[in-house]
Amino acid sequence: MSQSRTGPGLVVVDKPAGMTSHDVVGRCRRSFATRRVGHAGTLDPMATGVLVIGIDRATKILGLLTATSKSYAATIRLGQTTSTDDAEGELLQSVSAAHVTDEQITATISKFRGDITQVPSTVSAIKIGGRRAYQLARQGHSVELEARPVRIDRFDVTARRTVDGVVDLDVEVDCSSGTYIRALARDLGDALRVGGHLTSLRRTRVGRFGLEQACSLDELAQRPRLSLSLDEACLLMYPRRDLTAEEAEAAANGRPLAPAGIDGTYAATDFDGRVIALLRDDGPRTKSLVVIRPATL
Predict the structure, then answer these.
(1) Which of 69, 123, 148, 231 is deepest in the core (most CB within 10 A)?
(2) Is 170 a catalytic residue?
(3) What is the DSSP string of 107-158?
(4) Average pLDDT along the chain, 297 residues, taken 10 residues at a time
(5) Contact partners, residue 167, CB within 8 Å, separation at least 6
(6) Distance separating alpha carbons of residues 59 and 70, to the nearest angstrom
(7) CA–CA separation, 139 vs 88, rounded Å?
(8) What is the fold of 9-68+207-230?
(9) 77 has which bridge partners?
(10) For residue 1, what pLDDT is reported?
(11) Closest by alpha carbon to 7, among 53, 58, 50, 52?
């Protein structure tokens, strides 16, 4: 299983609940008949929604995708605290949140928009001394994670339900990479002094890739297909720079070019419109981030 049935590209999968991101990779390896499969941005087993999968040489750009902004639809339960900050953990505390008003919720949520610092959940995949935080936590070790800067561009409540003293908030969040929605639920509950945790999470967008492009694993098993070829994905994500034949040869060999005057990363293409490399201006020369079509291909 070396060369895929489709060639290199990205597949936007609508991940079902109950599967790890690695499980999805395994299913795609079988569907596309290649072991060169990876994913951008881990989703917890309880979460559903957009998981971007790279096939063959498209795995080279997954690291760039991981750093892009993300959007979520989630449900936060106020009045209950759990050991994992989500519904899969042990219930630690339960108090009535029925007295919390919409105005209090609105005012408190506004404090979480913009640039904030956030302490990730102890069951996150962050590594401590080479081991995942969630592995240490589940083995009974004390886990202390440092606060890190994140950005919340949108944090809106779309619905509220109050049942038996707990308050469920349906929310929509646009945020930077590295933001933990579980931690956002925990911190909102703490700020309102009733505790809180996440009961559902659906990722609706990763960068420019959304649910409208996503397909199910069953659909892929029946008919393996790319959402975007590697060229299409690069040109969707980044501005384009057309290269001369000489420049294309240099880029394919990883050699620097004269700068293009384009801000950030851009896709350098040959005469036929094929992406040769992802470049970035770096002073008087370019810096090669990923060679998409190396000369040795």
Answers:
(1) 123
(2) no
(3) HHHHTTSEEEEEPPPTTSS-EETTEEHHHHHHTT-------EEEEEEEEEEE
(4) 78 95 96 95 91 95 88 98 89 96 98 95 67 62 80 98 96 95 97 98 95 96 95 95 97 97 97 96 96 92
(5) 77, 78, 79, 97, 98, 100, 160, 161, 194
(6) 19
(7) 16
(8) Pseudouridine synthase (3.30.2350)
(9) 168, 197
(10) 45
(11) 58
Please spell the DSSP secondary structure of 179-198, one letter per residue.
Answer: --HHHHHHHHHHHTTS-EEE
Catalytic entry in 44, 85, 86, 270: 44
Residue pair 10/226 in contact (Cβ under 8 Å)? The answer is: yes
Q: What was the pLDDT predicted at 83?
A: 86
The overall pTM is greater than 0.85: yes
The C-alpha R_g of the chain, in whole angstroms, comes to: 22
Cβ atoms 238, 278 nearer than 8 A:
yes
DSSP one-letter code for 10: E
Read off the tokens for 27: 């299913």
Residues 13, 121: Cα–Cα separation, whole Å: 25
Outline which parts of the chain fall under CATH 2.30.130.10.
238-291
pLDDT at 71 (0 to 100): 98
Span 70-201: which CATH code? Answer: 3.30.2350.10
The DSSP bridge pattern shows strands 48-55 and 196-206 to be: parallel
Cβ–Cβ contacts within 10 Å for residue 283, how many? 8
Residues of the chain with CATH 3.30.2350.10: 9-68+207-230, 70-201
